[in-house]
Amino acid sequence: MDFSNLGSIRAKARWEKRNKPLINYIKNNHQQLSKEKARLIGFIMGDGSITSLGKPLSLQNHVVSFYPDDKVMLDLFLSDFEKLYLKKPTVKFLGTYYSARVNSKSACDDLRSFGDFSSLNWKFPEKLHSREEKIEWLKALFDCEAYVSHQDIRMQSVSKKGIESVQRLLNEFKINSKIYVYNRKNKNWNTNYILSIPRRSIQDYKRTIGFNNSKKQAKLDNLPACQNG
Fold first, then answer.
1. Does 76 fall in a domain?
2. N or C: which end of the chain has fewer CB within 10 A?
């Protein structure tokens, strides 16, 4: 008899019994929290991570992390996570940004069912269907990744399918954008894909999507392109 395997089976059974109320809560309540979930996923894909540490069968150290540089984003993340998974992340201020971390296997399993969160392979989660979910996901992602200038709103990533999925969503909302490819000098470095919403379409982005990030929204509000159309 493989006693090590038997121990893992028993540990998993204990975990499932202990966490059954949360698993049932996720199953029965998350449909009413779809906007919060879409926003949380966008935040984590943009400036966060989901990691499972230790042995493959370990039921510990399943960590959701988020590193915003804006207090409004932090507060939204904390509120959304507690509503969705009934647990408060731990927060530290690290000078120029915040670190929010929480250990929850149930949360990690549920979030991973929506897609890949790695920097190379993230993309829009196809399980998000409604207009409101799409807007919340886009807004959260742009909160983390976008740069606002007088010429455009720009974001870049090493995930080609991620950038292309963003452009498809923007097209749904009649927001024009272009994708540029930047091949870096070192051949060992990943190719960057840059999505740009041009000045003439900034007003469309502001009207439909906007930002939760207070600094980026203020900059967007002050752009002449947004004020004059």
1. yes
2. N
Identify any residues that bridge with 90 across adjacent strands, giving them in sequence order: 101
Contacts of 77-86 with CB under 8 Å at 24 or more apart are: 77/40, 77/43, 79/36, 80/33, 80/36, 80/37, 80/39, 80/40, 80/43, 81/40, 81/107, 83/33, 83/36, 84/26, 84/30, 84/33, 84/36, 84/37, 84/40, 85/22, 85/26, 85/110, 86/22, 86/25
CA distances to 22, 69, 113, 200 from 66, in Å: 22, 10, 18, 33
Domain ranges, residue 33: 3-223
Amino acid identity for residue 74 in this structure: L
* SS3 state at 65: strand
**Cβ of 14: how many Cβ atoms within 10 Å?**
11
Which helix (H) or strand (E) covers residue 220, if one does?
A: helix 214-222
Integer angstrom CA distances of residue 224 from 5, 61, 132, 160: 64, 48, 27, 31
Q: Is residue 10 part of a domain?
A: yes
Query: 78-101 pLDDT, tens per residue?
Result: 999 999 999 999 999 999 999 999
- CATH code, domain carrying 139: 3.10.28.10
3-state secondary structure 119-162: CCCCCCCCCCCCHHHHHHHHHHHHHHHCEECCCEEEEEECCHHH
Retrieve residue 98's tokens. 């915040």
pLDDT tens figures, 138-178: 999 999 999 999 999 999 999 999 999 999 999 999 999 99
Question: Which residue in this structure is represented by tokens 């499972």?
Answer: 52
